[in-house]
Amino acid sequence: MPQKLKVYLDTSVPNAYFDQKDKTRKQITRDFWLKIRRSQIFISDLVIKEISATNNKKLRNKLLRLVKEFKILSTVDRKITKLAKEYVRRKIIPAKYLEDAIHIGVATVNHIDVLVSWNFEHIVKLKTKKEVNTTNLSLGYDELEIIEPAVF
């Protein structure tokens, strides 16, 4: 039996599932949700932390229920921290967005096949993908596919 694809979701993906402002993004995310059922889905404790900071209690609870079945990866790991800081040092991710670098680092260190995000500013960009993979390969890690839900 073929191995299941390992998929990491950053916080932007579950957030988009309940998006009230962009109905198209919401529908694309819901369609994506149906497609990922055949994959191994991962989030991190950082995703839980970011969801837990949602001010709207009803929305926060819906988000937590949405991701409750997914495997949670720990970001408390020297390798992840070091790799995230390297992405910042190489100016792949701006220093003030270290958490975006941590999402990429946790996916890389845990040998995830694909990181899925709606963050086009710092994560889902051709430049970011190329530089992340150049960095990963130079440090002995595998390449990481970075995509938006629409192309899954």
Automatic annotation (TrEMBL):
Chain ranges of the PIN domain: 7-115
Source organism of this protein record: Candidatus Desantisbacteria bacterium CG1_02_38_46
InterPro entries: PIN-like_dom_sf, PIN_dom
Name listed for the protein in its UniProt record: PIN domain-containing protein
SUPFAM superfamilies: PIN domain-like (SSF88723)
